[in-house]
TrEMBL record:
HTH tetR-type domain location: 26-86
Upper lineage: Bacteria, Pseudomonadati, Pseudomonadota, Gammaproteobacteria, Lysobacterales
GO molecular function: DNA-binding transcription factor activity; transcription cis-regulatory region binding
Organism: Pseudoxanthomonas composti
Protein name: TetR/AcrR family transcriptional regulator
DNA-binding region per Swiss-Prot/TrEMBL record: 49-68
Region (Disordered): 1-25
DNA-binding keyword on record: yes
A Pfam short name: TetR_C_7
Length: 222
């Protein structure tokens, strides 16, 4: 069983492109999305223009608008796509062939920590938190496209393992939040402040194993 279905449009207020005509050029759409991921994560929302995205993708600005409707909708699509690149839906599938529960949690924790501790993720978080950068609407777009999708998928994963008798969970959604908070730990806050050197492989493994140990002690079936 895979994680909960994620909305195709994480920002329902944004204007979705529509209308008659031939099917959109998927190669151009992919190029636009890749350009948006690169520029938004590097330069932030305010520092990236639709003209820049069009130039990076090698298409006209009209083509960008035709595929994605507006800048906010493209930002949401870019964040969601980047999260799927780093934490694909398959990571949250309930499948005994993928190994033990601990092994699956190790893979999820590693992918999540690598994602949130990357320079790209740290940069976009700093941008959204800086005064004058990223109003509430933009932060909501980011939350729904990124963290909310990941929490929902992981919550469904935990609920499946609870139903199989492997976990004792009163609330899978809360447990998912707690797991990711443990995985972040103090390290993520220090990285956000620029007060932490990159971890060695051994240090990262020790940190993640400690988080998983605590989570399983809290929710193991007794």
């Amino acid at each position: 069983m895979s994680g909960q279905a994620i909305s195709a449009n994480p920002h329902p207020e944004a204007k979705s492109p529509s209308g008659p005509g031939r099917p959109k050029d998927l190669a151009k759409r992919s190029a636009i999305l890749e350009a948006a991921k690169t520029l938004f994560l590097r330069d932030g929302f305010a520092g990236t223009s639709m003209d820049q995205i069009a130039g990076e993708a090698g298409v006209s600005k009209l083509t960008v608008y035709s595929h994605f409707g507006d800048k906010e909708h493209l930002f949401a699509e870019a964040i969601q796509s980047k999260c799927r690149d780093l934490m694909p839906d398959e990571l949250f599938e309930f499948d005994d062939l993928r190994g033990s529960l601990r092994q699956q949690l190790e893979r999820i924790a590693t992918a999540f920590f690598d994602m949130v501790s990357s320079e790209e993720a740290l940069s976009i978080h700093r941008m959204l938190l800086a005064p004058g950068n990223g109003d509430e609407g933009l932060r909501r777009i980011f939350w729904e496209a990124g963290p909310a999708r990941t929490h929902a998928a992981f919550g469904a994963f935990l609920a499946s393992h609870a139903a199989a008798g492997e976990l004792d969970l009163p609330d899978a959604h809360i447990a998912a939040q707690q797991f990711f908070t443990l995985v972040k730990g103090e390290l993520h806050s220090r990285l956000m402040c620029g007060l932490c050197e990159p971890l060695t492989a051994a240090e990262r493994a020790q940190h993640l194993q400690s988080a998983i140990d605590m989570f399983l002690r809290a929710y193991a079936v007794r």
